[in-house]
Design a protein that fits this description.
It holds the Pfam family Aminotran_5. The chain is α/β, with parallel strands linked by helices and about 400 residues long. It contains eleven helices and twelve strands. It has a seven-stranded mixed β-sheet, with helices on both faces.
């Protein structure tokens, strides 16, 4: 139904079934024109490029993102090339001269998990990770940890990258103790799983980017900063001085909007691509709820067809899925394999059959996108059947 949006990528891979779109999503055709527009604007504005970007392009992108999340403060969104910049900037807002306590899960993406693992080697960092499994009791266990003492930072994903399970971030954020920094990682849910952020926007931080389901490619990540935030992260860049560059001296000032979390020079072509894709989705009538329904329907078609071939590993028994029939799930399905070696072997076999997937340890992931139709799903199951 929506293949027409992705003709260039599809034509480049005519025989491949790409089911790794949670990892490397195909880009809609409009992103190419946007990429070229960035070059043309660079030639047109030259030294005035930054003024154009920050007065026109950044507000446009902020407004589009705010519409998706139902945020009433689009100016509280700041951009960076990757989420790790924001992770470390958030951490650098804490007082490192004292003991720092961090509450998170055992299923956070590497941009956060690697960094806190390294910091936990320092004597003044205490990191508690709540296991996401068994998921039926996850929220109760996380709430119990929140109630134990005080936390400097609480960080968890909306959709867990290694399972596709969806966290009830409203429930946990609203029960979090006041005075603690609460951060939601929306990287694997933004433009995939609907989220009304309006009730959280006054106290919760939100990180996401365009590489996954926003489909604008790498390089355009963003952080939503609650309006009353007054932080002075020691990991800071010259973009935070944009409002008074001509008066910069030895004093380090910080703006009162989201730019207090700004970094430095970046390639804004990614922002052009993100804007183009979000505008195209609007013109096609594709809001997050509709996109999510299309993907859910495709997932159910895939699972129903998969049951008929009775694959020894890729079956419902090994599927990560919530016990609740009404629970939402991310846009990829995750299967638990017997071992890391078995998982990697299956990935290789699928790749030989021209089926692109990916894995994390013993978990094999199938991602679903708007460029899949019914025939793609049936062909996928057929190719899996040849491996059994």
């Amino acid at each position: 139904m929506y293949k027409h949006l992705y003709q260039r990528f599809l034509e480049a891979h005519p025989h491949e079934l790409h089911f790794a779109c949670h990892s490397h999503h195909y880009w809609p055709d409009v992103s190419r024109d946007a990429h070229i527009q960035y070059w043309d604007d660079s030639a047109r504005y030259v030294d005035d490029k930054w003024a154009h970007i920050f007065s026109v392009k950044v507000p446009h992108a902020q407004q589009l993102i705010a519409e998706v999340l139902n945020i009433s403060h689009p100016e509280q969104i700041v951009f960076a090339p990757n989420t790790h910049e924001f992770v470390f900037r958030l951490l650098s807002s804490l007082d490192w001269k004292k003991n720092i306590r961090i509450l998170t899960t055992d299923s956070e993406f590497y941009s956060f998990d690697r960094q806190i693992n390294r910091l936990s080697e320092m004597g003044n960092f205490e990191v508690i990770k709540v296991p996401t499994l068994p998921f039926e009791t996850f929220h109760e266990r996380f709430e119990a940890e929140m109630a134990r003492g005080t936390w400097d930072l609480m960080f968890l994903s909306h959709v867990f990258f290694n399972s596709g399970l969806v966290c009830d971030v409203h429930r946990l954020a609203l029960k979090a103790p006041q005075g603690s920094m609460f951060v939601i990682d929306g990287y694997h849910s933004f433009m995939a799983v609907p989220l009304d952020f309006s009730s959280l926007q006054d106290r919760v931080f939100y990180i996401a980017g365009s590489y996954k389901y926003a489909q604008g490619g790498e390089g355009a990540c963003f952080l939503y900063v609650p309006p009353q935030t007054r932080h002075r992260p020691f990991h800071t860049g010259w973009f935070a001085e944009l409002s008074h560059l001509s008066a910069v001296g030895n004093q380090v000032g910080y703006p009162q909007d989201a730019l207090q979390y700004a970094g430095s020079t970046m390639d804004f072509s990614a922002l052009y691509r993100l804007i183009a894709v979000l505008e195209k989705f609007k013109s096609e009538g594709l809001n997050v709820a509709k996109i999510h329904q299309v993907i859910k329907d495709n997932q159910q078609t895939f699972l129903a067809s998969l049951e008929k071939i009775q694959h020894p590993v890729l079956n419902r028994k090994n599927l990560f899925i919530s016990a609740s029939a009404t629970a939402e799930h991310g846009h990829f399905l995750t299967f638990e394999c017997p071992s890391v070696e078995a998982t990697q072997a299956l990935v290789r076999q699928l790749k030989q059959a021209k089926v692109q997937t990916d894995s994390r340890a013993t978990r094999l992931r199938f991602g679903f996108g708007l460029y899949h139709d019914h025939s793609d799903l049936l062909e996928l199951v057929h190719r899996i059947g040849t491996l059994a």
